Amino acid sequence: MESPFLARIAAITIALGAIAPVVVVALSMVALATVPVPDKLPVARPPDGSQVSRVYDVNGQEIGQFTEFEQNRPVKPEDIPDILKKAVVAAEDKNFYSHGGVDFAATLRALVADLRGQEVVQGGSTITQQYVKAAYTTGERTVARKVREGLLARALSRRADKEEILFKYLSAIYLGEGAYGVGAASEAYFRKPVNELTLSEAALLVGLIPAPSRYEPRANPGAAESKRVFVLDRMLDEGFISPDEHAKATQERVWLAAGGPLSSRPVTNVYPSRPTFTKYPYFVDYVRRYLEAKLGRDAVYRGGLEIRTTIDPRLQDAAERAVADGLTGVDPAIEMALVSVEPQTGYVKAMVGGRDFLAPGGQVNLALGKCALAAPEIRSKVDVAASCWDPDAVTVEGGGTGRQPGSSWKPFVLAAAFAKGISDKKVYSAPSQYRIPNCKGDKGCVIENFEGTSGGRATLREATENSYNTVYAQVIGEVGVPEVGEMAKKLGITSAWVANPEVHGPSYALGAQEVSPLDMASAFGVFANRGIRNDATPVVWARQPDGKYAVDNREPEGRRVLAEIIADNVTDVLKGVITGGTGTRANINRPAAGKTGTAQEFRDAWFIGFTPTLAASVWIGNKAKPTPLRNVKGLERVTGGSIPAQTWKLYMDEAMKDVPITEFAVPLPLESTSTTSATLFPPESIPYQFEDTTTTFDTTPSTTGDPSTTASTFPATTTPLPTTTPTTRRCGLLLPIC
Predict the structure, then answer these.
(1) Which is more confident, 606 or 720?
(2) Which of 173, 166, 176 is nearest to 44 (CA)?
(3) What is each CA distance from 581 to 353, 461, 585, in whole angstroms?
(4) Which residue has the higher pLDDT, 512 or 260?
(5) pLDDT for the residue numbered 124
(6) 90-110 mean pLDDT
(7) Left, alpha or beta for 633 (phi > 0: left; psi -120 to 50: alpha)?
(8) Residue of 191, 165, 195 whose CA lies nearest to 179
(9) Please, what sign has the CA dihedral across residues 526, 529, 533, 537?
(10) Contact yes or no for 246/199 (Cβ under 8 A)
(11) What is the pLDDT of residues 32-46, one digit of tens each?
């Protein structure tokens, strides 16, 4: 540990050249060999070696940063106002423009003050020395380091321009609140760019330099104010400001970003809290949560990761425009979320988690959901909420709490029904009301169709297209609530665990379970991908500074969770929802399938749909508390077939523009007899194929011709036969990433 006295003696010795020439040459060679001076001055680094993690879109353009130790706001030389440069020179190094890197007079004054036990008005280290300490040396407190610092400062003064040294210094100096550099500090304290700083604000920042924690304006406003006035006094002494400017500035009241005054003097400017974030805050927030769950906080904030994400700026911009259009003229309490997922990879291409991330309370990402995955042995006791990407996590907080999906949940019941051998052609009674068998009382015992509509009798296909609740209450009675919950979980709904099926009963078919837009888009994507599930992810890869991949999703390992024949038939039924059912406002004039959803009392409204290459979900509701969506944009009541379907169409029209039209696969006819449990839940250990270890069904028709019109049989065999040929495709369909 060095003493200030010895350090200053060393600096004086160097400045005077009092050391014997041989020693000076030797020390110079050692110092400069250890810390070479490049032609281009480096940016100072954080003292503990931490590095910023940088986030890039799918095209390689930077869209954000993760850092715990700095608020990085790169600035250009022309961004730094003269008033700020004058303030730092006056307060820290008044002879900066005339000395040779080490100021002998200042060092001597500091030495004398040390000897007398007096307060040092201006330190002995010059701006050049302080920059050298941050950029070149390790910062250890030793005489050897001080000697190297002095020698290097003199060398820099001969080689580099003073303005360049001052700019590098101001770009690197630590000013508290995690801010390195005046650009970051200006944002941290005033939420404004550095080139807009007033004289008073510049003086406040410069006053932090000697000891940011001691003069921290929020924690120690009195000390910060005294230091601010001190800087103004030094500027007046050096002739950098006039007496009138000094008098006016010292009387001003400085306001910080949080809105609180630094002193009780008259107000000059008030800058309300305005956090500065990436252009895509909701998506970057999702990336952060995803990586923290996988790698831990230190790796994300201090590990210098290079993060290539899945976001497509074109699709993201389209999503934001669609949401903004859907919310135009709508009460600010009503929010909307949109998530778009590529089924063949699981890549999240766009995410809007709310109306405005910068608004009060806007940081809640409504596209996600609260995640509380538990260990398998206690899952039956836990209501596992949405957006859980790490199956080993115990609690990973997402954004919102999730919302009831209404009838957009019915495709999971439909898939479970098909897996159990129920045909889409099966006819059900479709009364306006249906009383649940053996249900006592009236509350929760009667299920009604929307607006009391009666379908008379309807096939399962017709009941899906027209969203007859009374039919689906009967269907789930045949299939079973636990079986539907298991189906939804297999497809990617992480909130699908049902601790006690009797809690929901038949109402589970109508969307009683809370879900997130992310999970719904991902799960519907399984239908688009013909039964193969790729877990939703916002990250293609995350690479460490040493080149190793901490996360690598370049070759998504999809796994079959649903038989191809079932997925294809669900898709075929959902096509009718758009072409002639409750979702006609979502028609994009190309092959598409989807489902509307309206929660009880119109408190939430959804539309989830997909093409063969892209899935998207839209939710609208009151963020703070589920309340009826009435009298919104001229609508008496908001349903899934209104604003959500229109928003989905607006997004998909733009997202699919210039993308070649792709047809859905023509589904093979469903077998009317019951299938095995393995058909419902294929083993996940075998990617890209399905097999039943006991009995399998060959899905190849026994006759030739158009499979949509030709009857087929499914002869049983004792030899496992995959229903699809394993695929080797690993690239995105909309934007190839290999």
Answers:
(1) 606
(2) 173
(3) 28, 10, 10
(4) 512
(5) 55
(6) 75
(7) left
(8) 191
(9) negative
(10) no
(11) 444 444 445 555 555
Summarised one tens digit per residue, pLDDT across range 254-302 is 888 644 445 433 323 323 333 345 789 899 989 988 998 889 877 887 7
Per-residue pLDDT at 377? 33
pLDDT band at 21 (very low <50, low <70, confident <90, very high): very low
Rounded to an integer, what distance in angstroms lies between the CA atom of residue 556 and that of residue 539?
Answer: 11
Question: Among residues of the chain, what percentage have pLDDT more than 70?
Answer: 68
Asked whether residue 343 carries a pLDDT value surpassing 90, the answer given is: yes
Rounded distance, CA 592 to CA 613, Å?
A: 10
Tell me which of 261 and 315 has the higher pLDDT: 315
Distance, first Cα to last Cα, the chain: 53
Give, as one character, the DSSP assignment of residue 525: H
Provide the pLDDT confidence category of residue 252 given band limits of 50, 70 and 90: confident
- Could you give the C-alpha distances from 640 to 409, 410, 490, 595, in angstroms and in order? 12, 13, 25, 8
What is the distance between the alpha carbons of residues 346 and 732, in angstroms, rounded to a whole number? Answer: 9
Which range among 83-97, 176-190, 309-323 shows the weakest confidence by mean pLDDT? Answer: 176-190
Rounded alpha-carbon distances, angstroms, from residue 301 to 18, 67, 87: 47, 4, 32
Tokens read off for 312: 């497509």
Is 285 exposed, middle or buried, given 0-12, 13-18 or 19+ CB atoms closer than 10 A?
buried
- Of the pLDDT bands very low, low, confident and very high (cuts 50, 70, 90), residue 29 is very low
User: What sign results for the dihedral spanned by CA atoms 547, 548, 553, 557?
Assistant: positive
CB 599 within 8 A of CB 695: no
**Torsion sign, CA atoms 546, 548, 550, 552:** positive
Q: Flag whether pLDDT at 700 surpasses 50.
A: no
Residue type, 503: V
In degrees, rounded to 5, the angle at the alpha carbon of residue 200 between the alpha carbons of residues 199 and 206 is 90
Residue type, 632: V
Other CB atoms closer than 10 Å to residue 229's CB: what's the count? 18
> With contact defined as beta carbons under 8 Å apart, do 497 and 382 qualify?
yes
**For the chain, what is the radius of gyration of the CA atoms?**
33
Which residue type is seen at 558?
A: G
Chain Cα centroid distance, residue 693: 41
Nearest to 308 by CA among 535, 135, 63: 63
E strand spans, 443-563: 446-448, 456-459, 532-533, 539-543, 549-552, 559-560
For 4-251, CATH number?
Answer: 1.10.3810.10
DSSP for 79-127, written as a single string: GS-HHHHHHHHHHH-TTTTTSSSS-HHHHHHHHHHHHHTPPPSS-SS-H
Q: Does an H or E element contain 155, and which?
A: helix 143-159
Closest CA to 339 of 644, 61, 37: 644
Domain locations along the chain: 4-251
- For residue 55, the 8-state DSSP code is E
| Separation between Cα atoms, residue 70 and residue 511, nearest integer Å | 45
Contacts of 606 (CB under 8 A, 6+ apart): 405, 406, 408, 520, 596, 597, 598, 617, 618, 619, 620, 640, 644
